[in-house]
Amino acid sequence: MKQTSAPRSSGRRAAGRGAQAAADPTRDIAFDIVTGVIEHRRMLETSMENSPAARQAEPRDRAAAHRLGASVLRHMGTATEVLSPFLKKEPPEPVRAVLLIGVAQLLFLGTPVHAAVATSVALARRRGLAPFAGLVNAVLRRIAQNGDACLDGLDQERLDVPPWLWTSWGRMARPIAAALGMEPPLDLSMRPGCLPPPGGEVLPNGTVRFPAGTRVTELPGFAEGAFWVQDAAATLPARLLDVKEGERVADLCAAPGGKTAQLAFAGAEVTAVERDARRVERLQANLARLKLSDTVRVVQADATQWRPEAPLDAVLLDAPCSATGTVRRHPDALWIKRPRDLAGLAAGQQALLKAARDMLRPGGRLVYAVCSLQPEEGPACARAAEEMGLIADPFTPEELSFLPQARTPEGWLRTHPGLWAEQGGMDGFFAARFRRA
Ligand SMILES: C[S@@+](CC[C@H](N)C(=O)[O-])C[C@H]1O[C@@H](n2cnc3c(N)ncnc32)[C@H](O)[C@@H]1O
């Protein structure tokens, strides 16, 4: 059984018929998260923002709900399979959501049985599902009786990945799925010259890694801007652009700004281009904390339309994508995207590639990156870039000597959550480098 830490439980107060009005913000928010993702295909964070319960909740309840909702999404295939022998027919979606929340607590979060069952029954009542309260009670009690035996013989890794994604990931599928069951660690990139907070593990690329659940704001140096949160794999595209002091560089699709910070600390003159107004605010706040506000120029614009005043030495294009490479951190991505979404995403990525090409001086460099594991958004776009006249500039073995498994025969970068598995894995990224003729 794959287990993560248990959510705080308010089960005793919620037990029994008369307790349906008792407050249980954790499960209420988790219900909004799960139904938002499954029924409305909204991202976990968006579902949380839309949750009325979340707006009034304490930060610790929101954090517990986030962990509970993410656990449901991480184990949804397995939990569905566990439920199926106990259900004569498919229940309505909201009832299924309540049951999944109950199963996640019983089998994956180590919540005490009485709390997991009673809070699920109370949740069903609060959500207008009282006619199903008996079903929820009976099914969860039987699952609790069987305990871990419910998981015997189940290929959890296979079940927890939608079949179309499993197929598309080929040989990477099983190591990726194995990493999915675990909460990912906290990765930090250090501001040059700053010492890592004590207790972190320094990885071969310089990332400082802390165990899952570490609160970044509580680490010494956070407020002073000594570091920023950035997955180990996410550091690689900006590093591979290899910017020099004083080079004029654009970071397209820049928020929240991890790669912008890398480019600026490397000494480049950076313009960060971001379309979304709220994400521009987040980018600016992050740059302010890192004391980069006076160094980086931030532009709110659509990068397909924006052009620099003069041709640039280098462009980093971290394009919007299906984000399947970040499913460890964002398990909602597993259930939101559909195969038919990929063509539209790839068209957007290629429009951005054309724009990036047009911003470069002759000989200027471009790194194209996506946090996707899908071939349509990675290799297919790299080939499209060459058809646009960009010249491939493969990553060399020396540049990736600390992670040789991530270098493809074409000289592209392909990371996935199964790499550096012993140290806690990494996000999935694809990157390729080009020069303008
Ligand atoms: C993958 S995230 C970028 C992460 C960022 N590069 C980092 O390392 O922190 C993609 C970002 O692209 C922005 N975006 C999407 N389409 C865009 C466009 N046409 N022009 C500019 N920004 C865009 C999104 O709002 C989002 O903030």
From TrEMBL:
Catalytic residues in the record: C371 (nucleophile)
Where is region (Disordered) located? 1-23
Alphabetical list of InterPro entries matching this protein: MeTrfase_RsmB-F_NOP2_cat, MeTrfase_RsmB-F_NOP2_dom, NusB-like_sf, NusB_RsmB_TIM44, RCMT, SAM-dependent_MTases_sf
**Residues that bind S-adenosyl-L-methionine, according to the entry?**
C253, A254, A255, P256, G257, G258, K259, E274, D302, D318
For this UniProt entry, the molecular function terms from Gene Ontology, in alphabetical order, are: RNA binding; RNA methyltransferase activity
Q: Which domain of life is it from?
A: Bacteria
E.C. number, please?
Answer: 2.1.1.176
The UniProt keyword set, sorted, is:
Methyltransferase, RNA-binding, S-adenosyl-L-methionine, Transferase
Q: Which GO terms describe its biological process?
A: regulation of DNA-templated transcription; RNA methylation
Q: Which Pfam families match?
A: Methyltr_RsmB-F (PF01189), NusB (PF01029)
> What's the family?
Belongs to the class I-like SAM-binding methyltransferase superfamily. RsmB/NOP family.
| Entries under PANTHER family matching the protein | NOL1_NOP2_SUN FAMILY PROTEIN _ ANTITERMINATION NUSB DOMAIN-CONTAINING PROTEIN, NOP2 YEAST -RELATED NOL1/NOP2/FMU SUN DOMAIN-CONTAINING
Report what the protein is called. Answer: Ribosomal RNA small subunit methyltransferase B
Q: Which organism is it from?
A: Novacetimonas maltaceti
